């Protein structure tokens, strides 16, 4: 006997969770199937709308640039209103932990690599670090953190022409950790305000105070201070407020390459929203098969330690990700969607999948299922694959998510539309 829901969402990333929340809002019963933990924990925590298109960008107003996108881009299929509704849903989930919802204009966020990234929504922990802010800035790195060189990042930001003076220093964190310690170890030490090591900060109780005392002499007139994305985990706001009070200047986190703590924090908020909405979640078991009848999917099977577990639903949303997330598979001969075997157009000659210029327009970046106006995947003849299947997120073709900086926005918009329409048909 299959476990039945009104709507079944396959995929636990931003698109899948957005679809599940939209479907649940219609009153439908919803189950989300995810092979792995949410891909949000492997993200930067920044939420993009549209940053570039071809040689154009970075865009100040992403919405103003949408009409110039190709007709097969997911934004053109669902329309600007759906993009706005998707971001409205995001804002309702994250509350005041994120900024950017007050304007259509992209924010420019400094990264740990010393680059500037245009984005539509950003954690409150990064708000004091906007690149459009003219306040002089000190970047603080720590010995042993090989993925952030504060002086180098400062030099790169200065070379990029930011409108503020910026310097970088590298300090010893007040508490010593193992060489392979993760960022979460630093963050939790600040969360708990653990005792610093006496050989590093002999005069202070609490690692927060010790850190502030190490940084203060280095300010030298700087009007704000930036840290790697590790100033607290569960108590990020509290740690940041404490440091600001002790330093006398605003503190902010720099955007980090994924995986990052801001991504983990964002995942936690979406999981809490799913629980509150009554969405049932099944994690850790891959989808391995399905059954269909009369052109509709009837049953989806997951593998639980060699046992096939059946799930039935009236409507199904496919949100398994793109090539990076394994929602699209490829071999030397072909490109395929591995769950429902949906059609993915691609050149027969494998050498036509990519351009010779590594930084050029790469055809494979746009591989994905082709949807109709209702986000139902189409087969090679242009007919719907299944009448009750919709696709959302980066499994859709037509967009270069990495180059265009639109992956999060496409996930929010198409997830919202797919979930809402699936739930409305129950």
Task: Give your account of this protein's structure.
- The protein has 426 residues and is an alpha/beta fold.
- The chain has helices at residues 14-25, 74-78, 80-94, 150-159, 183-192, 207-219, 236-247, 261-277, 401-404, 407-424; strands at residues 3-10, 30-34, 98-99, 107-110, 116-119, 122-123, 137-142, 166-171, 224-227, 251-253, 280-283, 287-293, 296-304, 307-318, 329-330, 335-336, 389-391.
- The strands form 5 sheets. Strands 1, 2, 11, 12, 13, 14 and 17 form a 7-stranded mixed beta sheet that branches. Strands 8-7-9-10 form a 4-stranded parallel beta sheet. Strands 3-6 form a two-stranded antiparallel sheet.
Protein traits:
single chain; 426 residues; alpha/beta; FAD/NAD(P)-binding domain; 2 domains; 7-stranded mixed sheet; 4-stranded parallel sheet; 10 helices
Characterize the biggest β-sheet: 7 strands, mixed
Distance between the termini: 21 Å
Compute the average pLDDT: 94
Judging by the overall fold, what is the CATH architecture of the largest domain? 3-Layer(bba) Sandwich
Number of DSSP strands?
Answer: 17
The level of helicity is 25-40%
Mind telling me the CATH superfamily name of the largest domain?
FAD/NAD(P)-binding domain
Count of separate DSSP helical elements: 10
- Indicate the CATH topology of the largest domain: FAD/NAD(P)-binding domain
The tally of structural domains comes to 2
Give the SSE string: EHEHHEEEEEHEHHEHEHEEEEEEEHH
Tell me, what's the shape?
globular
């Amino acid at each position: 006997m299959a476990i039945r829901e009104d709507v079944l969402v396959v995929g636990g990333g931003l698109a899948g969770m957005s679809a599940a929340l939209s479907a649940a809002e219609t009153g439908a019963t919803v189950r989300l199937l995810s092979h792995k933990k949410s891909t949000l924990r492997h993200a930067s925590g920044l939420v993009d709308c549209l940053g570039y298109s071809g040689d154009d960008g970075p865009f100040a107003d992403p919405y103003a640039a949408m009409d110039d996108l190709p007709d097969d881009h997911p934004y053109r299929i669902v329309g600007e209103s759906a993009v706005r509704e998707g971001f409205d849903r995001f804002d309702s989930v994250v509350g005041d932990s994120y900024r950017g919802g007050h304007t259509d204009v992209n924010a420019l966020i400094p990264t740990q690599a010393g680059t500037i990234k245009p984005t539509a929504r950003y954690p409150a922990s990064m708000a004091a670090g906007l690149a459009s802010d003219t306040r002089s800035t000190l970047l603080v790195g720590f010995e042993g953190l090989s993925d952030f060189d504060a002086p180098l990042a400062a030099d790169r930001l200065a070379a990029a022409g930011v409108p503020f003076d910026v310097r970088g220093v590298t300090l010893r964190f007040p508490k010593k950790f193992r060489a392979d310690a993760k960022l979460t170890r630093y963050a939790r030490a600040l969360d708990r305000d653990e005792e610093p090591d006496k050989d590093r900060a002999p005069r202070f109780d609490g690692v927060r105070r010790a850190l502030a005392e190490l940084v203060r002499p280095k300010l030298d007139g700087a009007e704000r201070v930036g840290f790697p994305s590790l100033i607290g985990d569960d108590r990020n706001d509290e740690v940041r407020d404490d440091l600001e009070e002790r330093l006398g200047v605003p503190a902010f986190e720099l955007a980090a390459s994924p995986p990052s703590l801001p991504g983990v924090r964002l995942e936690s908020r979406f999981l809490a929203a799913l629980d509150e909405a009554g969405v049932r979640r099944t994690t850790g078991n891959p989808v391995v098969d399905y059954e269909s009848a009369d052109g509709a999917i009837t049953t989806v099977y997951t593998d639980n330690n060699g046992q096939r577990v059946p799930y039935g639903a009236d409507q199904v949303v496919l949100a398994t990700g793109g090539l990076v997330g394994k929602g699209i598979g490829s071999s030397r001969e072909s490109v395929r969607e591995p769950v429902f075997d949906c059609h993915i157009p691609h050149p027969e000659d494998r050498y036509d999948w990519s351009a010779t210029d590594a930084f050029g327009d790469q055809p494979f970046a746009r591989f994905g299922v082709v949807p109709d106006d209702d986000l139902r995947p189409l087969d090679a003849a242009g007919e719907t694959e299944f009448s009750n299947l919709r696709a959302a997120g980066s499994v859709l073709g037509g967009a270069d998510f990495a180059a265009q900086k639109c992956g999060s926005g496409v996930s929010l918009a198409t997830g919202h539309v797919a979930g809402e329409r699936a739930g409305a048909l129950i």
